[in-house]
Fold this sequence. Notes:
Elements: E1 10-14, H1 24-27, H2 38-50, E2 55-58, H3 69-72, H4 84-92, E3 99-105, H5 111-124, E4 129-134, H6 139-142, H7 153-171, E5 179-182, E6 187-189, E7 197-200, E8 205-208, E9 221-224, H8 229-238, E10 241-244, H9 249-261, E11 274-283, H10 287-298, H11 303-314, H12 340-353, H13 357-363, E12 370-373, H14 375-387, E13 393-396, H15 403-418, H16 431-435
Helix pairs in contact: 4-5, 5-7, 8-9, 11-13, 14-15
The structure holds flavin mononucleotide.
Organism: Paraburkholderia caballeronis
Protein name: FMN-dependent oxidoreductase, nitrilotriacetate monooxygenase family
Domain Luciferase-like: 28-390
Amino acid sequence: MSNTDNRNMVLGMLAYATGQHVASWLQSTAPADATTNIGYWRRLASLAEEGRFDLFFLADSPGARTEKLNDFSRFPYMMNMFEPVTLLSALAGSTKHIGLGATGSTSFYEPYNLARLFASLDHLSQGRAGWNVVTTASDYAARNFGLDRLPPHGQRYARAREFFEVVMRLWDTWDDDAFIADKAACRMFEPEKFHVTDFQGEHVRVHGALNIRRTPQGRPVIIQAGSSEEGKSFAAEAAEVVFASDPTFDEAKRFYADVKGRMSAFNRDTSQLKILPGLSVMVGSSKAEAEDKYRELQNLIHPDVGRMRLGMDLEADLTGLPVDEPIPEHLIPKKANLHQAYFRQITTLIREQNLTLRQLYTSYDRGKVTVCGTPEQIVDYMEEWVDGGAADGFMLAFHVVPNDTEDFVRKVVPEMQRRGRLRKEYTGTTLRDNLGLERPVSRHAR
Ligand SMILES: Cc1cc2nc3c(=O)[nH]c(=O)nc-3n(C[C@H](O)[C@H](O)[C@H](O)COP(=O)(O)O)c2cc1C
């Protein structure tokens, strides 16, 4: 049984130790050392599994911030964390059904390392691994790898293409039935079922073969999250899960139709790609109670963090400005260089509502929407998106973990199950089974 046969929504959890909100750690009930506490991570993954999630996912960037430490000491994002495949390998032993996905950078790994790591994870978890193919957009990471700054967008994607091709070939090194362990004939594997990769690209060169057998899923599930032209065409050609980030239904629906519409050019069935927009929720016994909870959390944002995050998207230095007055007009740039949409959202708030700096940073959340409501209202919202052709399910980015995850699992999940929108029990054993994805046939068997 798979998601394609029924009305199940796909559920992923974007897992941060204390949540994705900038002030999450101030409200989280997690232990103080949560980010590197394996007992805590095991409880968290089990909670997602209790909620019958398809996928437990770890974002990653290989580099801590080295500047603005006063601000980042109050918002310690990416400053202290496990290497994700190492953590997932530990979680493979304490979970049974939930998929285990992580980001792996095509800019800062060699394809051989990456193919080996994720193949090992797929074996360790008996078929539950997923790789989020990311080019990494952080100069902090670049400086850890001998560069002064990131290579340009086009160059990163050109390397990503070659990198991906090599990883896929390496994963097909061994045919499924290559290992025969025939003691009588003294033969462990059949040499003709072993295939060498020989790839000479502009960015990547590999002549060799992977030293681990083909994985339970054939290969890990391929995840993609970029929304540029390159990102979308890569998704249509090769991705099996896409993390989308459009804040409104209309934009999400356009993105969904756009990416799925490109798949026929690659001879792919649209059921073989699951598009999951990000979703943050606040659960309450009434909409007003949920909104109060969210406001309380927003009010915990430290002024230094508020100024830094708003300043980044407004492309203005707001350091030291009084928070209970509006931003002086002369500091507001005429136009944006970086994120047009974020910039427009902030300047609209300034022009239309004449908000103070504090009011601004407590109402602005980088184009993201938080759905506040009762469990019924939240499931209504999710159904509207899925049934309206804007999503196959959602990537849940909980503001405060484990608090909001517990609320979701205990209150929203039962409502989803009552409406027949989420499995009550897992039916398969692999991540591909959870998602209703086919097991890929090796290129050498085709
Ligand atoms: C749910 C989600 C998770 C992501 N996780 C990561 C991550 O772990 N590491 C990273 O460098 N980028 C991550 N990204 C960013 C994207 O992979 C991508 O780099 C970004 O959207 C820009 O891509 P584009 O240039 O194709 O638009 C994530 C995006 C989304 C929506």
